[in-house]
Specification:
The complex is a heterodimer of chains A (294) and B (194).
Chain A: H1 2-16, H2 22-34, H3 38-57, E1 67-75, H4 84-98, E2 124-130, E3 136-143, H5 145-148, E4 152-156, H6 161-175, E5 184-191, H7 194-205, H8 216-231, E6 245-252, E7 260-267, E8 273-278, E9 284-286
Parallel strand pairs in A: 1-2, 5-6
Antiparallel strand pairs in A: 1-3, 3-8, 4-7, 5-7, 8-9
Chain B: E1 2-5, H1 10-14, E2 21-30, H2 33-41, E3 54-56, E4 61-65, E5 69-74, H3 84-94, E6 98-101, H4 107-116, E7 119-122, H5 128-133, E8 135-142, E9 152-167, H6 174-193
Parallel strand pairs in B: 1-2, 2-3, 3-6, 6-7
Antiparallel strand pairs in B: 2-9, 4-5, 7-9, 8-9
Helix pairs in contact in B: 2-3, 3-4
The chains are: A alpha+beta (294), B alpha/beta (194).
Chain lengths: 294, 194
């Protein structure tokens, strides 16, 4: 059973390094068609041609295959709960060889590349235990270096309000987002401290496209943030264009009366995130990429 | 559209203008952070000539080894701005005339481009298989002690592109101009929507 799980997960990582999720590809195609600036259109063509070529040649679509991150919603009676750490780490090792993924795990402070894509705390694994369930729902994200760079978090006095949040996000986008391979996916988290906000920002970024926050007042703020970021005109690859973000997603928690953590996380256009569900017999259902059978 | 073959002559590079679309053929090298450090800070030069050549800011995925032969599977550009502290001296020391990467570079690099007759060109970030298709041969690796992403790879290209000129030898800098535009547009957008 363990062996089946490791094999299927390794194969899944391999496949998502080579193919964009259906929602992301659809969004990119729509943005490419809507774009009017000739240079931006030419760059979209490069990206979409690259997606087709990667599928044809069965190659990772970007050379930066990232660090592998897992976000788990795991049932308390999922049979492999006790072994997940080991299984997921082994799956990364295997995908690294099969895809192949670029060796990206560099240990600190020696600055030595482990050459296996596995190292201290890598892959990153986040657990959320779901009571009364025997299933595992897993989001796998290949976190590239370029789009991690503009991420930032800060704690503000709550009086800065939405205006302060909007400026914080727009600053990150203009100062560093240009080099993060736009059009970008933007996740914003608001919570009691820096770390809780950063966690929510990550979850927000991983949301399906299109989607909006279930609370209407937050959904409205997501729309406004997207309008602001698009209006800046960064365009694909920072070369200018009419839109620059695929989606802005926000997740919010209550904050302390005197401090409010705000964080923003970005993903590049090559947003390699997959979702897969395992049942107790290790039958897998891929929900992010139509046609992948494991 | 402009076609160039490496090594390029100074006058070919001086004729380029920001926004031009270039397709590049011939032998070039991939080199990023550590290659720049090695040449500029550690003062060690590779045993091939880069005179009139091109450096591609990229850390590729390469299959194979020196005995069986290499194949570049994916090679997209990395952020050129990380090399800003090194590039002017890198150009002076190696004689490269074309720098290829993602996004733009700063004023020090632009000044060096003007002085020595060099240019910076961008390729679409993430379009790594598209670029690999234009690499006809992976000749070999220099300094493989730096690891796959950081080593210097010697590559033969055929019509690598489209590359867009972002810094020309006149001192024009497309991304510096864009940055000013974006900063102004950001203030306008914040005023408009808030």
């Amino acid at each position: 059973m363990k062996e089946i799980f490791i094999d299927k997960t390794a194969m899944f990582i391999d496949r998502i390094s080579k193919r964009l999720p259906d929602d992301v590809l659809e969004k990119l195609r729509a943005m490419s068609e809507a774009e009017r600036a000739p240079r931006a259109k030419a760059l979209y063509k490069c990206m979409l041609d690259n997606v087709s070529l990667a599928a044809e040649r069965s190659r990772p679509l970007c050379q930066d295959t990232g660090l592998v991150q897992f976000f788990l919603k795991v049932g308390s009676s999922f049979p492999l709960l006790d072994d997940l750490d080991d299984c997921l780490t082994e799956a990364v090792r295997r995908a690294y060889v099969s895809a192949p993924l670029r060796p990206n795990a560099v240990e600190f402070p020696s600055e030595r590349n482990t050459l296996t894509n596995v190292g201290d705390g890598v892959p990153f694994i986040e657990y959320e235990i779901v009571p009364h369930s025997d299933k595992l729902e897993m989001t796998v994200y290949l976190a590239g270096g370029g789009s991690a760079l503009p991420g930032r978090a800060e704690v503000f006095p709550p009086s800065v309000g939405f205006e302060g949040i909007a400026r914080f996000v727009a600053d990150a986008m203009v100062e560093k987002g240009i080099n993060a391979c736009p059009p970008l996916v933007v996740g914003v988290g608001v919570a009691g401290c820096m770390a809780t906000a950063a966690k929510l920002a990550k979850h927000a970024m991983l949301r399906v496209i299109p989607s909006s926050n279930p609370r209407p007042e937050i959904a409205e703020e997501e729309r406004i943030l997207k309008d602001i970021l698009d209006d800046i005109g960064i365009g694909p690859q920072g070369a200018g264009g009419s839109s620059s973000v695929m989606q802005v997603s926000m997740e919010c928690a209550a904050h302390h009366p005197s401090s409010m953590g705000v964080a923003v996380q970005f993903s590049c256009w090559a947003f390699r995130r997959g979702r897969i569900i395992f049942d107790r017999d290790m039958r897998a259902t891929v929900t992010s990429h139509g046609g992948i059978e494991l | 559209m402009i076609r160039l073959t490496l090594p390029v002559a100074e006058k070919e590079v001086r004729a380029l203008r920001t926004g031009d679309e270039v397709y590049l053929s011939g032998r070039l090298v991939a080199g990023r952070d550590r290659v720049h450090e090695r040449i500029v800070t550690e003062n060690i030069l590779p045993d091939i000539s880069l005179e009139g050549g091109a450096v591609f800011h990229a850390g590729p995925i390469v299959k194979g080894d020196a005995e069986t032969g290499f194949e570049t599977l994916a090679i997209g550009p990395t952020t050129s701005m990380r090399m800003e502290n090194f590039e002017a001296e890198f150009i002076a020391k190696t004689g490269v005339r074309l720098i290829i990467g993602k996004g733009g570079m700063g004023m020090r690099t632009a000044a060096a481009c003007k002085k020595y007759g060099a240019a910076h060109l961008m390729f679409a970030g993430g379009a790594a298989v598209l670029a690999a298709e234009r690499i006809t041969k992976t000749e070999g690796v220099i300094w493989d002690d730096l690891g796959m992403p950081e080593a210097m790879w010697v590559l033969d290209a055929e019509s690598l592109g489209p590359l867009i000129v972002t810094i020309d030898a006149e001192g024009n800098n497309m991304f510096e101009e864009n940055k000013k535009k974006f900063a102004a547009a950001k203030e306008a957008a914040l005023r408009k929507y808030l």
